[in-house]
Design a protein that fits this description.
5 helices, about 160 residues, binds iron/sulfur cluster, 3-stranded mixed beta sheet
Length: about 160
């Protein structure tokens, strides 16, 4: 059976996976968040097994489960508070993930193993930090964290 025909273990936005790998490389320990979302549960699951099947989505994902900002229609009501005026997080996320789907030549709702997706991420690193660094985040720090995370997982073997 081909990977695309299997049920997914996780449903995640492409940039949320990159965030988790970058945090892993920077030794971030995720705790339950005041928003109530599930990042602290999803991150260890994602990192535990590179063979897990992940459906890459352009919308609310497993991290959004339980979040107080998740509206009944599946949209995010939050904003990017670090910017003034603060743009919609839904729009920001959708633009960022659309850019990543194009950059990786992947289609929304495709399913890959975590390892397969991270091999693609690795092939675009360095350089990926230029399109996937959040506002007020340092691109060099982002790149270092991503590279360290990929190395810790055995995806990346050299600088
Ligand atoms: S994207 Fe929005 S709904 Fe999802 S976890 Fe973040 S703040 Fe919550």
């Amino acid at each position: 059976m081909k990977v695309n025909e299997k049920l997914a273990d996780l449903k995640l936005r492409p940039h949320h996976i990159i965030d988790i790998i970058t945090g892993y490389g920077n030794n971030v320990q995720y705790q339950p968040h005041p928003f109530g979302h599930a990042r602290h549960l999803v991150a260890p699951k994602l990192l535990s097994d590179l063979n897990l099947k992940v459906k890459l989505v352009l919308g609310a994902d497993d991290i959004c489960t339980g979040c107080r900002n998740l509206l009944p229609n599946g949209k995010c009501s939050d904003v990017l508070a670090q910017l003034t005026p603060s743009p919609s997080k839904q729009a920001y996320n959708d633009v960022l993930d659309s850019r990543l789907f194009d950059h990786f030549t992947l289609a929304p709702d495709c399913t890959l193993s975590t390892g397969e997706y991270l091999e693609i991420v690795n092939k675009h690193t360095p350089g990926l930090e230029r399109i996937c660094t959040h506002p007020k985040e340092d691109p060099e720090e982002r790149l270092t964290g991503l590279i360290n995370g990929l190395k810790k997982l055995g995806i990346r073997r050299c600088i």
